[in-house]
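For this section, I looked closely at the sequence of one protein beside the tokens encoding its backbone, which the following lines show:
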Amino acid sequence: MSKKQYLHLDSLTTRPELAQRLPSEVAFRYHALPIAGQEGNMTVALADPDDMSAYSAICEALGTRPYIIKGDQEAIDTLLTEVWQLPERQPLHILVYDHHHHTLYTPDDLWQYATSVSERLKVNPIQTQSRVLPEDAEQAGCDLVVMSKVKPDLARLVISPLETQITYRLSTSLLVIHHPVWPLRKILLLTCCNEINEPALNWVLKLAKSGDIGVTQLLVTPHIPSSHHDGYIEALLSPNTEMGSWLRLANQRFAQWCIPSDIKIRQGEPAWQVEQELDEQSYELVVVMAGKANNGLQRSPEDKLLSSLWRLVNCPVLVAR
């Protein structure tokens, strides 16, 4: 028989080294948090103490039969987020940038999509029609600016697409809508140019954490001769490398929120590889990290990829900061 003690807790306190004795995928799936333990005895706060499958999984993971205390699910999830260092549940602010001219979509289309995103994130959008965008974004304290893709005829008149220019003017993330489809079913998370894109990962987690959205991590690397391919990929994905450690961390976080995910690796020129991936698989959103602004004549790899995305991608793109 399982040892269960029912107690509604108004607040929970925990120690990370103790809480992490329970694997994150088990803790998040069943809303379970170890809160006390010594000499083989463990006490676990569980949202649903009557869930026998949860109890069995916890016993197997801990290697012992713990005491179970009923805890508030939201309180448990909040503490698990802190323990496993997931994105904080702070209120988000969205600013809708309606610049009117040369856009592919009407203000109503823009507002409708922004509203869907805000409902997914459980926030309310703020609308502005000002052209002084960076200052307005900072004054509004926004985390995300939503705008429409510009018309192709205007994009051909400038060296750097308007979307890229706005990206580098902003200190916040930017979501550019193009062929918007809702609800989201599949997100492409781009990892290129050896960038560790923590901001992009955090946005994907915020959007997909309910578990009904799949995520593909696309890692684009330089072309490697076939004779060195296996050794290169093995070294790249090693936990001893920065990229290997990053990919494992991302997979761990997806597992913590029960988000279906997979990793694809492509070799070659980033824009071309991204185009090939988009031809082979349908996505409702592409997420990429913003590169650093470059005022010189030499364009950075990130800038080249970002500028290419506006031409290649037929779905909304979120540029994360």
